[in-house]
Amino acid sequence: MSAGQPQASHDGTAAAAAVRVAEVGKVFPTKSGEVVALTGVDLEVAAGEFVSLIGPSGCGKSTLLRLIADLDEASSGALEIFGKPARRARLDQDYGIAFQQAGLLPWRTVAANISLPLELNGIGKTARAARVAELAELVGLTEFIGHYPDQLSGGMQQRVAIARALATSPRLLLMDEPFGALDEMTREHLQSELSRIAAETGAAVVFVTHSIPEAVFLSDRVVVMSPRPGRITEVIETALGASRGEELREAPEYYERVTAVREALHGTRLERANER
Ligand SMILES: Nc1ncnc2c1ncn2[C@@H]1O[C@H](COP(=O)(O)OP(=O)(O)O)[C@@H](O)[C@H]1O
Ligand SMILES: [Mg+2]
Asked: Reduced to 3 DSSP states, what percent helix, strand and coil does the chain have, rounded to the nearest 5?
């Protein structure tokens, strides 16, 4: 391979973008007519990049994430995950998913919940136990490994969900408002944890949120969306560096980016005010 050429891994996909969305549209037929959930969506997420999708309810954030995850199909346009069709990427388990509801199995311990994707992959018992221990440590739950979900706080349940999503070491994490149901303190704490975990694992993340500070704190880029029809209206580069310590929350450049995202969302808010 000559110099300057992208390095290909054994499966030839290392150099591919984590996510490539080109001219994607999604229309839902409903009884009262068609809902254009997404139109003309172009988005590329680099390997290892953290990108948030933000915008008012109904702007198509979840729909876009579901298309990337192959949980639904685009009406038009093309999607690629690590250079593969979304379906292939799903079958290859190229990504982990975490939603607002942790979705843990109540009859399984923390360890057994985290272990589930490994079991489904036929990983042997010894290797599973070692990986579960590593993941529990990563999300700070080592002491709770034998607990059941109903013995955990909401924040701890979300940690389990994140550990489970990371179990097979995916290069991409898809998260839809994973901290949406948590109190503000827990939320900030988990944001810091997620930032560290994303950096440590090198996984790319596509993260849906309603929260401007959350999007800015976590992301390399914040994608601002607008409804009716759902589309991307602006993309803001945060350029806040790799280290996302608590001190960042009080830094002037952090406030500047928060303001920039708020202003980008502002057009949307005015439109909504005018509709009333
Ligand atoms: N399965 C569906 N059937 C019909 N309409 C849908 C469906 N899923 C989403 N929508 C519509 O698509 C638009 C975008 O929804 P969604 O992606 O959930 O927005 P967000 O996550 O940004 O709040 C909304 O108008 C929503 O009502
Ligand atoms: Mg949603």
From this structure: 40, 25, 35
**CB within 6 Å of ligand 1 — which residues?**
28, 30, 35, 37, 55, 57-63, 230
Atom of ligand 1 minimally distant from the CA of 228? 25
**pLDDT tens digits, 70-105:** 999 999 999 999 999 999 999 999 999 998 888 999
Distance 56 CA to ligand 1 centre (A): 12
Rounded to two decimals, the pTM is: 0.89
What dihedral do alpha carbons 100, 92, 66, 259 form, nearest 10°?
Answer: 70
Query: Quick one: tokens of 65?
Result: 């994430």
Task: Give the separation between CA 230 and CA 238, rounded to whole angstroms.
Answer: 23
- Residue 274 is predicted with a pLDDT of 56
Name residue 33's beta-bridge partners: 30
| Cβ atoms < 10 Å from Cβ of 219 | 27
Strands 221-226 and 231-237: antiparallel
Residue nearest to atom 1 of ligand 1 (CA): 28
Query: Which domains does the chain possess?
Result: 19-94+170-275 (3.40.50.300)
In the structure encoding, which two tokens stand for residue 14, read together? 């290392």
